[in-house]
Each structure stands twice: as structure tokens, then as C-alpha cells.
Amino acid sequence: MKKQFKKIFSSFLVVCLASFLLISSTVFAAEDIDYRAISQQIAQDVEAYRIPAMAVIVVDKNQVVFQETYGENVSPDSPFIIGSMSKSFTALAIMQLVEKGKIDLTAPISTYIDASKWFVKDGQDEKVTVRDLLHHTSGLGTYQTFGHLEITDSYGQHLYANANYGLLGLIIEAVSGESYESYVTKHIFQPLKMSQSSASLQASIEKGLIAGYRNYFGLPISGPADYPGPIDRGSWGSVPAGYLSASISDMGRYLQMYLRDGDAIISKESVQQMFYDTVPVDDEGLRYGLGWGYTEKRLDQPLLVHAGLVENYTSKMFILPEKEIGVVVLVNMNDYLVTNNVLDTIVDPLLGEPRKDLPNHYLLLHLAIDALYLLLTIISIYSFITIGKWKQKEKGMKTYILDILRHFLLPVGLLCLPLLVGSPPRIIWLFVKDLFVVLYFNACVLILIGVYKLFLIWKNRQNQS
Known about the structure:
This protein is of the alpha+beta class. It folds into 3 domains: 1-30; 33-351, Beta-lactamase; 362-464. It is 47% helix and 13% strand. It has 16 helices and 13 strands. An 8-stranded antiparallel beta sheet has the order 2-1-12-11-10-9-8-7, with helices on both faces. Strands 5-4-13 form a 3-stranded mixed beta sheet, with no helix packed on it. Strand 11 and strand 12 (325-331) form a beta hairpin. The longest helix has 32 residues, at 433-464. The chain starts with a helix and ends with a helix.
């Protein structure tokens, strides 16, 4: 009986110790963070920065530590389009197929798909490997489209390009014999019980996709995302690169899978490879793995991170390996010039970091931007309505210099601005439509008036001669 009692008592101690460790790990993960105060501050930021809806979650590997939604018509089960965070799902699918022996990361992509039709030059698809696509070291340009792919001098160096993950999606389909949507649903969403996640627009809508907003002149306006169809000639965005949808509760389950070392859908070794098989991105210590960024500089500790941005949704996800917590933020708006830039400040307290001073400059910044828009528009409209007065005016050198500035240098500068900041005009149109309209409307008006004035000058000289 005494031995039996000792056995029972020992078992009891083991259970108590395990429970204590479990509770301790949870407390450690949360680090006594005052989530109530953080939540109140986020609610204020959501209102101050005109964010229609935001959802956040903090998880450890055992439970949801904190979860909240802000704004209207949003719940923990509301799907958002998650943007480039989709790349981690595509990388995960690739690693599942690697484990099954169906993909070799060192093999050229021509082993699995005929990608020659997407490249400008013959044979370039035989140079690019699967790992190159995952690392963004294929040499493909950031804004290159399918059918116009070409390896640049950056081959072997990190250069972020959606085309890399579009090609990975095609490889997944070819190797698995399933559509990308079917594969991700069966092998990732369903095993992780991500019931509100989808890999197509129709399925996302059926599951209650929350309305997305673009910002026009400081006003959030609802409208559909430019959701991509199947990859074809001219495609830039694609579902594998940026258009999966998921709810905040589903994203919590997704990060818990990584915190649990794969959670039976992938091995711990593959998870480690996704995180730590990296290439340098910049001089600030950021590195890129397989669908995940990695840095030790931002928080002075290891941090795994990926952001997402499409036309009217933004998102961020983080894993702190040492603290064993994951954080996700989903927003149903793209305010490229103002609000997007403050999301990190809003999120930092969820990572255990002090909140930076964040004065509310939303109205001030948008008023300044709108004032600049208005000034350009006034210049072009004034040039139009004063054309009659210009005809009657005696023209000297001062008038000609002013016209050269107004009808040549200014509009050329406006037209070249997207290229000067490294974004083609079509990207400006997708993400900052109000800026696109202002730039190109005013540039075209000023150039047309300038051409008309040149015609009048030429006609006047013809008459004099």
C-alpha cells in the first residue's frame, strides 16, 4: 500500500509540475503585458486613423493569449485578404512536397514545369532553381509580369518579386496534380481547422469576406480588390503570391502550427529551414527565408515577420521564437501614404515593446497631400481658363520661360515621378489611385495646353511672314 501511495503521489507531483510549467510558459509568453490598456489604445488609433476594421490576435503554442476586433461589421471569423503573407503558405506547401520527395529545392524549375513561355529569353527557366524562387534570388525584377520575365544582374541576390511565388504556385499544381486552391485547402486549411480561409475570390466571398477600403483624398471608400485570375500572360499579382484570405482566429491557428514545430502537417526540420535558411535582404540585418523574413535588429531578439499589402487590405504577422508567441494584425484598408506607415507603432506593444509617441497627424498629413493635389489642379485649370488672355498678351522672354516650366518641365516631372520612386504607373494606379489621377490628369492637361500654345505661336508667325 505504501509503495502504491508513493506511486500515486509521484504521479500527482508530475501532473502538478507539468501544469505549473504550462502555466509558467503562458505567463512568460504574455510577460504580464497589459492587453486591456493596449486594446484601449488600439481602439483610439483605429478611430484616429480612420481604419474601418482591424483584427488582432496574440497566441502561444497552447492558447489564445489575446484577441480583439475593432470597427464595424467585423468578428474573429471575418476573412480578410492577407496579401503577401500568402507567400508563407505557398512556401509551406512546397516544403510539404519536398518532404514527400516530389520536389528538390536545388532542381531547376524546368524539372517540374515548362516555364519557357513566361520568359523573354530561351533557357533562362533552366537556370532558376526552386530555392531561388523561395528566396527571391532568381534575378526576376520586382514588377516583371508573366510573359515578360527576364533574369537581371541581381541573380543570386534578394530582389522581392511576386512572379517568384506565382511560379511556385504553378509548380505545386504540376507536382501535386491538384489546383493550388485545392492543395492549400486540403493540406493546410483543413488539417489546421482554418475553416474561414480560402484560396479563391468566390470562396472568400461565400465565407463572408469583409469589405476592403482604399483611401481617396483622405476618405476611406469601399471597393473590391483587383483579385487576380489564373496566371496568364501579363499577370503580376497571383493568388499564391498575395491573395489568400483568412480570419484572425484562423491566422492564430496558423502561427500556433509553427510554434508547435509543424503540428503534424510538416516536420520540425522543415519549419526550421523555412525560418533560418536565409539570404541577406539589406544592410539593416533583415534576411529572407522560405516565405518568412528574419531579423534580430528590430527588437534586439530573433523576430520572424512578414507583411501583406494589396489594393485595399494590409496585414502583418510576427513570431518571437524566444518568447514562443505569435502576433497577427489584419486591416481592411490601404492608406498607402499615411496610415500604413503607423501600423508598426500600433502593433509594437503587442510584441512587448513600448509604444512610440504617435501624435495624430492623419488629418494634417492628408490635408497637406490634398493641398498639393489642389495646387497642381489649380495650375492646370488656370492655364486652361486663361488661354484667351494668353492669346492677347504681348509675349516676352519671361512668358516663354514660364510656359516652358508650366507646360514642359512640370508635366514631365509629374509623369516621371512614379519611375523616380521606383514604381511603374500601373502600380501607382493599383495602390494609390487618387495620386495617379492627379498626376496624369494634370500632366496631360498641361501638355495639351502647351502644344496648343505652340501651335498658336507657329500660326502667328506664319501669318506674319
